Design the sequence.
């Protein structure tokens, strides 16, 4: 018997892979959704890169339904996303479109999956960004997309949002995650302020198990200092 069922959108990325591994280690059935396969997951749904937003939604919601065979999910976790810099002077539309696809499409498709396949009192976790609580002139497309995820989180937490009764919807707002790629590009940074991937996966597991749950609709900043992470809800 598995402890429960979760799907991880972005299951092949650094944080997504850590989540797949952590939930598998805790005896969960895990589905991965990403642009490439994660062979450690029980089911790996590969999203067509060139599909439109509505095509991707229909495909993902349908495939998740097939793989569940009538069962329901304990959690839908979206840790897909990416980063692009840039201001309004050069390539604004190009950067903004990429960020929209990576953060907003994935978050909204995750919401559609949750609306159809999450059990009552289940978890929908999205990924926002602390910088997007304010202006982001050096990364405008990124800030716009993450602000949209924050708005989506608050909308989904409201009544009549289409999610099952008692659902918890939250966004995690990391500052910097301790990933191999970040270490490669920022070797001299203070890594004690970076949030370990296992720490994030552990939080998500607790909330899935209905332990230490935050308030519905919370935007939770992950603030790490000297290797210790605390959650601070954004107002």
Sequence:
């Amino acid at each position: 018997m598995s402890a429960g069922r979760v799907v991880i959108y972005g299951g092949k990325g650094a944080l997504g892979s850590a989540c797949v591994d952590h939930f598998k280690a805790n005896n969960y059935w895990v589905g991965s959704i990403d642009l490439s396969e994660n062979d450690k997951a029980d089911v790996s749904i590969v999203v067509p890169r060139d599909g439109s937003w509505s095509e991707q939604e229909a495909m993902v919601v349908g495939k998740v339904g097939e793989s569940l065979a009538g069962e329901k999910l304990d959690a839908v976790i979206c840790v897909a996303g990416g980063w692009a810099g840039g201001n309004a002077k050069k390539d604004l539309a190009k950067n903004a479109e990429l960020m929209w696809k990576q953060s907003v499409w994935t978050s909204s498709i995750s919401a559609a999956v949750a609306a159809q396949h999450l059990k009552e009192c289940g978890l929908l976790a999205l990924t926002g960004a602390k910088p997007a609580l304010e202006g982001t002139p050096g990364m405008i497309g990124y800030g716009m997309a993450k602000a949209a995820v924050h708005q989506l989180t608050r909308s989904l937490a409201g009544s009549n949002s289409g999610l099952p009764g008692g659902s918890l919807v939250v966004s995690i707002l990391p500052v910097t995650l301790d990933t191999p790629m970040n270490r490669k590009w920022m070797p001299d940074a203070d890594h004690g302020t970076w949030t370990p991937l296992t720490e994030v996966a552990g939080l998500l597991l607790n909330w899935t198990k209905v332990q230490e749950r935050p308030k519905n609709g919370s935007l939770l900043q992950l603030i790490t200092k000297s290797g210790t992470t605390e959650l601070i809800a954004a107002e």
Q: What stands out?
A: The chain has one domain: 4-234. The first helix runs from residue 14 to 25.
